[in-house]
């Protein structure tokens, strides 16, 4: 009986079995990827914030010194504030004269430090409100 099977029939059966096997594996383990490929959903690209701020070395040194003074100032004013609104107003006043507030790394530092100090002093402060205050001071 095996003598009557040609190489062409054997290879065709082998290819059919391999196709069935890989179809099973694809459906079993890669269902989401396959379905996503056929639906052709487009993902909206997120807007990237511009992080290119050119400061000279002297300006950066001054801004960094101001940043360290500002973080010490924040550490001093947070315990005196009784509400998040009062804290945001105090912070807005301090940031009005801070020249490095447009540098994203400095913004992140101010945001994290203020949130940490507010939490440790029992002031509930949302990250969105704080970042809005920092960006618009």
Helix-residue proportion: 55-70%
Strand content of the residues, in percent?
under 5%
Oligomer: single chain
Distance between the termini: 88 Å
- Give the SSE order as H and E letters: HHHHHH
Number of individual domains: 2
> How many beta-strand segments?
0
Q: Outline, from the CA principal axes?
A: elongated
Unreliable stretches covering 5 or more consecutive residues:
none
Radius of gyration: 30 Å
- Give a short account of the largest sheet: none
Overall pLDDT confidence: 85
Q: Which structural category fits the helices and strands?
A: mainly alpha
Number of helices: 6
Describe the structure.
It is elongated and about 95 Å long. The longest helix is centred in the first third of the chain and has 23 residues. The protein is 66% helix and 0% strand. It is built from 6 helices and no strands. The mean pLDDT is 85. It has 137 residues and is mainly α. It folds into 2 domains: 38 residues; 79 residues, no CATH class.
Structure keywords:
6 helices; membrane; transmembrane; 66% helix; transmembrane helix; 0% strand; mainly alpha; 137 residues
What topology does this entry show?
Blueprint: H1 7-29, H2 31-39, H3 57-77, H4 84-95, H5 104-120, H6 127-135
Q: What's the short version?
A:
This protein has 137 residues and is an all-alpha fold. The protein has 6 helices and no strands.
């Amino acid at each position: 009986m095996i003598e009557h099977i040609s190489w062409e029939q054997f290879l065709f059966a082998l290819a059919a079995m391999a196709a069935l096997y890989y179809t099973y594996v694809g459906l079993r383990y890669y269902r989401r990827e396959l379905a996503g490929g056929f639906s052709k959903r487009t993902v909206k690209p997120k807007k990237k914030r511009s992080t290119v701020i050119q400061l000279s070395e002297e300006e950066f040194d001054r801004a960094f010194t101001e940043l360290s003074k500002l973080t010490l100032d924040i550490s001093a004013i947070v315990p005196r504030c009784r509400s998040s609104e009062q804290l945001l107003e105090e912070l807005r006043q301090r940031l009005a004269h801070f020249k490095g507030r447009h540098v994203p790394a400095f913004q992140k530092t101010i945001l994290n430090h203020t949130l940490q100090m507010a939490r440790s002093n029992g002031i509930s402060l949302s990250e969105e409100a704080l970042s809005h205050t920092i960006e618009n001071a």
